[in-house]
């Protein structure tokens, strides 16, 4: 039988534990308050101060949102953007990183110009003119095409691929495999942790798509849920469209409806984190840049 390893806590460890626990509570409280408040009746919401618990939970706000259904049109767009964008960006970023991990004439110059894109950007007006020239205005592709390759994640993946044993690729080439087949049959299966970690970052980024929807999309059916949520919070026009129930119904008000919408938008992306958590730390360690 294996021996149980017991760790003796020092005073420093105790204070670190207390500090991290307080920090965790401070960070989780806003989300907890949002969920709890969305389940409150109007009278309880107006009279509660800290909103830690619900005395009389109700789903009235959620029922109103489901009856209106507007948010789900924007959720569908955001889901498509997230799924398609993550797959496309992950593939092209990984494949570009694999190609740049090989030594070739002028590779350092190519990497220099790629890294420069992290620091030098054209700006909003040139972007708009380019997108208009390529027909991307009011086009779903404007959410995907400009973000097919992320420079920062490309550098992380490139470092990971450079650490692969060259013997594996040489053996595959002797068996008649080309670079494309090596990439799919050897490189990608061995890179699952870093792909999962970076894929999670891509998912969060595409899920939070907002600026592209504001500046490059005018078609309401192509708007993302983030812009819809922002308009719901800052204006009353969208909110009035939801609050169409009979007057005098107890159970919700404008604030609980706003909070319920926030919860609906947060839940899908939060549910992904536990599924990819086991790959997160390992993936970042694999892709760390060595000095």
Automatic annotation (TrEMBL):
What organism is this sequence from?
Paenibacillus yanchengensis
Q: Where is the ABC transmembrane type-1 domain?
A: 75-276
Q: Is Coiled coil among this UniProt entry's keywords?
A: no
Task: Specify the protein name.
Answer: Carbohydrate ABC transporter permease
Q: Which residues cross the membrane?
A: 12-32, 77-97, 109-128, 140-161, 182-207, 257-276
**Where is this protein chiefly located?**
membrane
InterPro entries reported in the protein's UniProt record: MetI-like, MetI-like_sf
Q: Does the keyword GTP-binding apply?
A: no
Q: How does it sit in the membrane?
A: Multi-pass membrane protein
Gene3D superfamilies hit by this protein: MetI-like
Keywords associated with the record: Cell membrane, Membrane, Transmembrane, Transmembrane helix, Transport
Family stated for the protein in its record: Belongs to the binding-protein-dependent transport system permease family.
Query: Where can this protein be found?
Result: Cell membrane
């Amino acid at each position: 039988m294996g021996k149980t390893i017991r760790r003796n806590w020092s005073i420093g460890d105790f204070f670190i534990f207390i500090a991290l626990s307080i920090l965790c509570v401070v960070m989780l409280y806003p989300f907890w308050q949002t969920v709890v408040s969305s389940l409150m009746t109007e009278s309880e919401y107006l009279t509660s101060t800290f909103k830690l618990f619900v005395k009389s939970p109700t789903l009235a706000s959620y029922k109103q949102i489901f009856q209106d259904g507007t948010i789900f049109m924007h959720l569908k767009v955001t889901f498509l953007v997230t799924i398609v964008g993550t797959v496309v960006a992950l593939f092209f970023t990984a494949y570009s990183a694999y190609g740049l991990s090989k030594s070739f004439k002028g590779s350092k110059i190519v990497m220099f110009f790629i890294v420069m894109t992290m620091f030098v950007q054209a700006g909003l007006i040139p972007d708009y003119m380019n997108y208009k020239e390529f027909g991307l205005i009011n086009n779903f592709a404007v959410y995907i095409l400009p973000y097919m390759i992320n420079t920062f994640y490309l550098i992380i993946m490139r470092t990971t691929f450079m650490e692969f044993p060259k013997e594996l690729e040489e053996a595959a080439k002797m068996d008649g495999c080309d670079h494309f087949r090596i990439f799919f049959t050897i490189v990608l299966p061995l890179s699952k942790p870093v792909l999962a970690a970076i894929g999670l970052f891509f998912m969060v980024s595409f899920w939070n798509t907002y600026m592209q929807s504001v500046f490059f999309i005018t078609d309401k059916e192509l708007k993302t849920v983030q812009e819809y949520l922002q308009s719901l919070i800052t204006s009353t026009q969208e909110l009035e469209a939801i609050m169409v129930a009979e007057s005098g119904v107890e159970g919700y008000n404008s604030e609980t409806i706003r909070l319920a919408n926030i919860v609906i938008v947060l839940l899908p992306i939060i549910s992904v984190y536990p599924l990819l958590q086991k790959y997160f730390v390992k993936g970042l360690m694999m892709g760390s840049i060595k000095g």
